[in-house]
Amino acid sequence: MEKVFKILGFAGSLRKDSYNKSLLRAALELVPEGVELEVFDLEGIPLFNQDMENQPGEKVQEFKAKIKAADAILIATPEYNYSIPGVLKNAIDCASRPYGDNAFAHKPVAMMGASVGMMGTARAQYHLRQCFVFLSCFALNQPEVMVPFAREKIDKDGKVTDQKTRELIRQLLESLVTWSRRLTRSM
Ligand SMILES: Cc1cc2nc3c(=O)[nH]c(=O)nc-3n(C[C@H](O)[C@H](O)[C@H](O)COP(=O)(O)O)c2cc1C
Q: Which residues lie closer than 8 Å to 90 by C-beta, 6 or more apart?
């Protein structure tokens, strides 16, 4: 019997009613059999200060430990000013340091994102992909889950009601697991 495949998910938004948190909640309902998705809240991660990188606080230590223990990572990113939010970049920076202890190294990672505009976080996602190069993680290319006009696809209770979006998230999760298993076999 194959062991449970563990995905750690987090959203680059601290907003209570975040559309990106909604994407992760939908993912929790759509995980394939034998897959466990844990959602981590970035609230409480302090601003990165390189003077302190060898003494990370409890929250950063917990975040890094969970990333390392996961078989794969799933990020739901908003788009802020055509890029990723500072909250997300800061959390990534914290988990990537100190040099030589980058929690993301060699992790398979998938992304998705929802915005209220027409681009569905495309610009933010391509910036995020750029970060993955130096982080040395293995980004899944397809499917690209870019959810535009989020207000029409996520209801007031935070449920993703759009069936096409749900199907894309399901495909993303399946592809992430397949991609990760293929990488593990080739390493
Ligand atoms: C500082 C800021 C910058 C934003 N920039 C963009 C942007 O570049 N493109 C876009 O589509 N939406 C932009 N928005 C709107 C977001 O899509 C919207 O706030 C969305 O709800 C954020 O994701 P969340 O619901 O997960 O918090 C911006 C919002 C904020 C607060």
A: 45, 47, 48
